[in-house]
Amino acid sequence: MSTVVRLETRGSVAVVCVDKPPVNALGRAVRDGLQQAFEQVRDDDGIRSAVLHCAGRTFVAGADIAEFDSGAFDGQLFHQTLDMIEGLDKPVVAAIHGTALGGGLELALACHSRVAVPDAKVGLPEVTLGLLPGAAGTQRLPRIAGASLGLDMIITGKPISAKRAQEAGIIDQVIKTDLLEGAIAVAENLAAQDAPVRRISEMQVDPATVPASLFDDARATLQRRPTGNPAPERIIQCVEAAVKLPFAEGVPVEARLFRECLNSRESAALRHRFFAEREAAKVPGLPKDVQLRDIRRVGVVGAGTMGGGIAMNFANAGLPVTLVEASQEALDRGLAIVRDNYDTTAAKGRLTESQVEERMALLQGSLDDADLGDCDLVIEAVFENMDIKRQVLARLGKACKPGAIIASNTSTLDVDALAQASGRPADVLGMHFFSPANVMRLLEVVRGAETAPEVLATVMRLARGIGKVPVVSGVCYGFIGNRMLEPYLRETEFLLMEGATPAQVDGAIQSLGLAMGPCRMIDLAGVDVAAKVVQENRKAGGLPDDPAYRAVVQKLMAMGRHGQKTKAGYYRYENRKPVDDPEVMQLCADLAKEHGISRRDDISDQEIIERCLYPLINEGARILEEGISYRPGDIDTVWINGYGFPDWLGGPMFWADTVGVQNVADRLAHYAEHRGDAHAYWDRSALLERMVSQGLRFADWPFSDR
Ligand code: T1G
């Protein structure tokens, strides 16, 4: 008998329990166990009905995603198990708690009835992995819930509540008492009725319930925001098959389209993302029994755009926040911005008025550091200037109670220096939120040389609790993301001085799938902000001795072209629409002349992509070899969640394996030769050299010291 699928009997009811922590994924052992258990249900005449439930925190959360890379997932066999369950003449009731997702919901749909606890959720999120339901979910869900809801659930991948699922007919009963007992009662009743079991595969979608434009509208939506994800269009084809074909003919259509998705590099990239984000939350070397610190109250110093956004993250999670500013006027302004943000969300129907008031009530403004004395975590979000931040850290080192964690939201400055300024470096780390802080999921957690392990572990756990994707970075200029951004922006500006236009550079980068090209990104973030970062970096001695380095952004700032907020930056903005501006072309030509940069009119999109992204990858390799980042997947997680790198490419390091590390190295050498390498811009990192010489991929990380 299987160790992960147990069968017991309660009278004439078979109780089949899946027990495979952490989420009862349908790995081979579970699939085999289910097959065996339901063969026994089939063959035992003493059994008249069955209940399928799960131990642990959730019903089956889907296939074992890791099996797709190892090739161990046998969809055909799983189909046969589901068909065998559905084919039984004895009613089988699925008892759902937690989340029945993907293959888990498909398993439940092969049962003859489904019951769930009130807070359960059901969904088919395969699209987020570049897949589609591969166990007849695209054929059964539309039959039980209708084509519109079925298509929407599968193409968005969003789970729905038990209540909504009951309204749609997916769940037959919500059990408010003991789930298992309730499910057993339902099974006994069904058996007592002695009626034919209800099989979803025998149902038809009523054409009258299918909106005439359903599939055309779905395709039009895809066209409006095309991505590289191979699944959405194929999902539409599967649901069309569910509507138009008998079940037995629809299943092979789904199987073919599922295989096409599974074999795509884009799905491999999306599955890489799934595990990379979870791996990033793990800190190597932390003792398993590390004692986390309790975080019951948070302080934020600085109520500007970042400080307000940071405060919202904690208020949204129900944590009280003390927001400290230097003047009443600044404090009032900051709280007003927060309220505006909440009101905007409420206007979109994503928050109720009472929720807005509850969250605002959690925010307590103050002008006095003493009010931070009972906070367990205090985050400074003051102006990005080392002297100012040092003063604030020194104040916080005194104002915060013993054991409180002190964090800096700096985006580039030396966290170790700030930690020393506090006088209690073990309590200090960086928490680099990305703007807008209440929206962007990425949080770079900067580990100082003296940051205590439990401080790091506490913040990593807290970050996930407030819905962030945390990634640990060591201390260096720009941490992970902004450090890799430097060569990306450096080459952007050299390309502009050589004759490319902002629209051409952005167009090439956006054609790869990045949400926003470099020029639009800086215009949005602020040309002045970017120019100041260059100046701070120069002051800190971090720049090459090259007067042409990032010369364009500094010139734009000097001209008052600060980006979207001044309706002019790299672009001119006509009704917020960016258009190339001859004044900027001229500026770039003048700078080229000033710095002896020759102009060209043969710059290709491919050259732009290589010159902007391959040095970015090379810098990522340096970050790995210096131990600033633990894993290539951490770097991918930063770029997908913080900079809009297309997740269907898996992030820059996964994508480097796709284009080939050898190719990246060769192209860096090519540009060194053709662009000149006076400032070592094209020097290949030692790690990249090693990978080329040993035929390694980033997927092979960690590299043994061979
Ligand atoms: N396969 C393998 N491992 C999984 C897994 C899965 N489906 N789901 C979770 N894990 C691991 C995860 O890596 C982590 O491991 C631990 O479980 C806790 O996860 C045939 C083709 C269920 C909502 O897409 O959405 O079915 O880090 O940190 O925040 O048609 O996990 O502890 O070592 O996310 O409480 C479809 C994916 C698969 C659901 C729980 N199913 N999982 O969230 O915990 S394809 C999914 C989730 C499929 C069929 C198709 C979430 C969760 P570790 P966690 P959580």
Largest sheet: 8 strands, mixed
Number of strands: 19
CATH level-4 homologous superfamily of the largest domain: 2-enoyl-CoA Hydratase, Chain A, domain 1
**Overall CATH class of the largest domain:** Alpha Beta
What is the CA-based Rg, rounded?
Answer: 28 Å
Helix content: 40-55%
Instruction: Count up the helices.
Output: 29
Number of domains: 3
Tell me, rounded to a whole number, the average pLDDT. 95
How large a portion of the residues is in β-strands, by DSSP E?
5-15%
Bound molecules: (2S,3S)-3-hydroxy-2-methylbutanoyl-COA
The CATH topology of the largest domain turns out to be 2-enoyl-CoA Hydratase, Chain A, domain 1
- Tell the overall outline: globular
Structural class: alpha/beta
Can you tell me the residue ranges where pLDDT is under 50 for at least 5 consecutive residues?
Answer: none
- Strand arrangement, largest sheet? 12-11-10-13-14-15-16-17
Terminal Cα span: 44 Å
The CATH architecture of the largest domain comes to Alpha-Beta Complex
Structural topology:
Blueprint: E1 5-10, E2 13-18, H1 28-43, E3 49-54, H2 66-70, H3 75-87, E4 92-96, E5 99-101, H4 103-110, E6 113-116, E7 121-123, H5 137-145, H6 147-156, E8 160-161, H7 162-168, E9 173-174, H8 179-193, H9 214-224, H10 231-244, H11 247-262, H12 265-280, E10 298-301, H13 305-316, E11 321-324, H14 328-347, H15 353-361, E12 363-366, E13 377-380, H16 386-399, E14 405-408, H17 415-422, E15 428-433, E16 442-446, H18 453-465, E17 469-473, H19 481-498, H20 502-512, H21 518-525, H22 527-539, H23 551-558, E18 571-574, E19 577-580, H24 582-594, H25 605-625, H26 632-643, H27 652-659, H28 661-675, H29 686-694
Parallel strand pairs: 2-3, 3-4, 4-6, 5-7, 6-9, 10-11, 10-13, 11-12, 13-14, 14-15, 16-17
Antiparallel strand pairs: 1-2, 7-8, 15-16, 18-19
The structure holds (2S,3S)-3-hydroxy-2-methylbutanoyl-COA.
The site of (2S,3S)-3-hydroxy-2-methylbutanoyl-COA has 25 residues, from strand 5, helix 4 and helix 12.
